[in-house]
Amino acid sequence: MLTVENLTKTYRSGDKALQRVSFTLPKGQVVGLIGPSGAGKSTLIRCVNRLVEPTSGRVLLNDLDLTTLGKPALRRARRRIGMIFQEYALVERLTVMENVLSGRLGYVSFWRSWMRRFPGSDIATAFRLLDRVGLEGRADSRADALSGGQRQRVGIARALAQEPELLLVDEPTASLDPKTSRKIMRLLTEVCAEHELPAIINIHDVVLAQQFTQRIIGLRAGEIVFDGPPSDLDSAALTAIYGEEDWSAMRQAAAEDADAERDQTDRMAGLA
């Protein structure tokens, strides 16, 4: 479980990126974090793992207060937090397998990591994860030979290789086409359910957030202005998050996408 208490981030300029943000994320729950550009979404997930240092407040991962840790303890704690980036953050010249195994770097000695000699159990796990994310047979491909969707799948496998207790996902579909975006969101929610992983997904696409996440948190100017199930994200809630707009077309698209998703699920069930 993740608990965020009164998390605040104020920059030296005096700008407040986050203002007393509080929420609890139970085991296995996937949250869509939405809001306009500059609302504090990326700052929030980076404050959770202290890639950005919060000004005040607390972040507790199960029994561990992340905000009190010194550098050595923080390095160890970050093994428990899988991070998936918008721009994939892969080492382009390395193979898919080498990129996935980099998720195990926090668990092996310096010399093993330097020589890229990982235990057989880690290699077996990496192959299993590649199969799970749909990249069977691509272990020896270079990362720079992959499509955007395939690179994101490598990032998911690498995060899972850490055996994390929490996933933080920063705009996983921003560079992908609509069909691939749905596949990636479906994969993320499936693996979270399989591993009982709580996850925060920073996402600009409200329709995808409604379709695939169990809960939505809306930020505006660094404050939570909505926290609830996707079904409660009506025009009033969207206006509170983004400002005045005609939301009818977007809500219709969300309904149509949900219907299409149900139809696809029904078809797959019929083929099983």
TrEMBL record:
Domain of life: Bacteria
Keywords: ATP-binding, Cell membrane, Membrane, Nucleotide-binding, Translocase, Transport
A GO term, aspect molecular function: ABC-type phosphonate transporter activity
Region (Disordered), start-end ranges: 252-272
Any one annotated GO CC term: membrane
All copies of domain ABC transporter, residue ranges: 2-246
Nucleus is among the record's keywords: no
Gene3D superfamilies cross-referenced by the UniProt entry: P-loop containing nucleotide triphosphate hydrolases (3.40.50.300)
Pfam families, sorted: ABC_tran (PF00005)
Protein family: Belongs to the ABC transporter superfamily.
Protein name, as recorded: Phosphonate transport system ATP-binding protein
